[in-house]
């Protein structure tokens, strides 16, 4: 077998192994966070929150192109991601399992915030207010991930 065929086989093997994560980044134990689609003999899982984000991005893009060229105020760009972060926190720390409809809705709001944040940032480049909002949420999410990992380690012990 030639080197080209070995490389091709390795790429195909890698794509087959990782393709399940293209639509959902969740492990099998977390498929309850996904929408399930059965097509032919295959089952596909779509992350509910990510699906909501995509719908929010597309809907807001169409709204911007065809209806109104205005963007949301900073207060909305700041508030809309909070719903997804709160919903994730509630699930991640075991307070409740949430639901796919809430994940889709919070993802939708997050998609709207993403679109408007990028729009404002690029339109008024560099927009430090939007950058500050992004940094705030990134730091807040990092703190929550750290706390979740500490909780997991203490639960194991």
From TrEMBL:
Q: Which residues cross the membrane?
A: 43-66, 72-95, 102-122, 128-147
**Keywords on this record?**
Membrane, Transmembrane, Transmembrane helix
Instruction: Establish whether keyword Disulfide bond is in the entry.
Output: no
The name on file for this protein is Putative membrane protein
Q: Which organism is it from?
A: Methanolobus tindarius DSM 2278
Q: Taxonomic lineage of this organism? A: Archaea, Methanobacteriati, Methanobacteriota, Stenosarchaea group, Methanomicrobia
